[in-house]
Amino acid sequence: MSATFGGAALSAREALRRDPALLERFSDRARALFYARLAFLAIGLAVLAVPSWSLFLGTTSSTAFVFYFAVIAYSVLNYLFIEHPRFGRRLTFVTLCLDLVALCSMVLLSGGLSSPIMAAHGLFTLFFILLFPRKRSIVPPLLILPIAGQLHDSLTSGVVRSETIFLIGWYATLSVIVAYVLLFLHRRDEKRRVQLSQLSKAQETSIVTQERLRLAREIHDGLGGSLSSLIIQAEFIQRMTKEESLRIEITELKSQAEEAIEELRRSLTMMRRDFDLHKALEDYCMRFQERARVWCSLKVRGRTRRLPSEMQLAIFRILQECLTNIQKHAKAKNADVRLKYDGDLITLTVTDDGVGFDPSEQRSGHYGLSNLKARATKFRGTVDVQSTPGAGATAHITLVVPTEGSHVAFLPSMGD
Q1: Rounded to the nearest 10 degrees, how much is the dihedral formed by the CA atoms of 61, 63, 69, 71?
Q2: What residues make up the domain containing 393?
């Protein structure tokens, strides 16, 4: 019986782990089961304390006390481990099966399936379906019916009576009806919950899209316009001045402004659906090669896929950080960039033949490695930098593609 349940429980436990709402619902229902057990234990204590009640239910032997304290023990144990990510559901299922064993024992002592104790059978059937809402959860409550009926008739008359068959069919029918109604309501509620979740995400995405569009327009028209004006003014002053040192400074100022406006356009482009990450990486490697005078090659391997815009931005910024560090510190002649797709893993490897460094050495004022780790952490990534002085350096950055739909909103195409 436990094996039957355990085969399908893995996906349910995984769903609980990923969805806090499902975990909270299971915990609430498991606590309700605990409180129901407390009520039964209170009644059981009264039965054990009143001799006439014990005689009526056949609980005068010491066995009744053993069952009573056993129920207390596993009920408390179950309550303590309700929210345990690995054992909570399993232990709850096992204790529910033990409840059925205790019920069966009480039924045998108090008159078989015609005992008033059988009224509790429907309640435990309800908890089985509430806690484990699937069709096979009805199996344990149904199995206990023929077992209790057969054992009682064997102990009393030795033959199965027609009344017992009727009671088995009656309680089985009630259990099936309860299971069907609860499963129907559960599936309807789950469907509505999923629909509400999807509507909520769609509304959130729409709001974020509108807000990002508004901010993008303000940035494009405001900051972009200011940088364009700065470039025009720098060109005008450059033509006006005749002092060579001043012309060099103005040229540098113009280059920085052009780089800034290019960075602005690139950042806005990254939020659009038509953004091509590989083309952006290739263009940046070419510009790095021209600016830093370092030969830079890019290779993309694996089966490419569409990545969330935030992840594309992170990959681009990581490459930007790596190449900037090479330009500033490595004194390299060659750099090699490799982007590899491997299922849900994205690996970016940047290698140079520069002077190298000691990765364990803490250097004040240098935050390149910490920046890489901060960006990778957002995507459950890792950063592994291997280098020795005089032997170049290699940076391996691995990111995990989000398993659920990204909440990142994409902007419609905008002109420069």
Answers
A1: -120
A2: 276-404
Structurally, how many domains does the chain consist of? 2
Among residues 416, 396, 407, the alpha carbon closest in space to that of 201 is found at: 407
Tokens of 326: 């090479």
Using DSSP bridges, classify how beta strands 334-342 and 382-387 pair: parallel, antiparallel or unpaired: unpaired
Between CA 186 and CA 340 the distance in angstroms is 43
Q: How many Cα atoms sit within 13 Å of 190 on the Cβ side? A: 13
Instruction: Give the separation between CA 405 and CA 37, rounded to whole angstroms.
Output: 41
pLDDT higher than threshold 50 for residue 415 = no
CATH classification at residue 281: 3.30.565.10
pTM of this structure: 0.51
Tokens at residue 19, please?
């969805």
Task: Compute the average pLDDT of residues 337-365.
Answer: 85
The bridge status of strand 334-342 relative to strand 295-301 is parallel
Together in a domain, 11 and 155: yes
